[in-house]
Amino acid sequence: MNIKASAAPDMNQQLVMRQDNVNQWRVLIVDDVEDNVTVLSAILELNGATIEKASGGIEGMEKVLDFQPSLILLDLAMPDVDGWDMKRFLDATPNVSHVPVIAVTAHQSYNVRNQLKQDGFAGMIAKPFSVMTIIDEICDMLTTGRTSEPLRLSS
Q1: Is the peptide bond before 128 cis (omega within 30 degrees of 0)?
Q2: Nearest of 83, 140, 139 to residue 115 by alpha carbon
Q3: pTM score, whole prediction
Q4: Is the residue at 32 inside a domain?
Q5: For residue 52, what are the β-bridge partners?
Q6: What is the dihedral of CA 33, 69, 57, 148, to 10 degrees?
Q7: CATH of the domain at 106
Q8: pLDDT band (50, 70, 90) for residue 13
Q9: What are the Cα distances from residue 142, in Å, to 3, 56, 127, 145?
C-alpha cells in the first residue's frame, strides 16, 4: 500500500511503510490512557519512528495538521472527541484524508470490526497488544488489511 509521505516537502513522494523503514514513519498516537501512549511511543521510537502524542481527540485534531503524520494510531473510546468522530474529521480534511488510521481498541465485537471497515480504518490493533509484534502487525495491516487478534492472557 502506498502512502503519501506527509513529512516530506514534496507531497507527491510515496512512503511504503515497512519494517525496514520505520525510521521514516511519522506516527500520531491519540489515546486518553497515558500508559497506552507511553508503551506505543516507546516501541515505535525504539525502532526509529518520529512520534507525536495526543491525549484525546481534540488535541489530536489540533496536532495532526502541523505534524503531518504518515500513520495515525487512534483510540476509539475517549471522553472529549472519540475516535469515530476524529476519523470523520480526518476524512473531511484534505491534507490528511490519505493518512492511514489504525484503531487501537479493546472493543472487538463483530459490529465494531465491521464498522471500522465501513468507516475506512486501515486496521485494528486489539488491546491488550503484544509489544513484541506490534510493528509487524502494523505493517501487515497496511499491506493486507487484516486486523490483529486479541492477545490471549493466561490465568
Answers
A1: yes
A2: 83
A3: 0.83
A4: yes
A5: 28
A6: -50
A7: 3.40.50.2300
A8: very low
A9: 9, 24, 18, 6
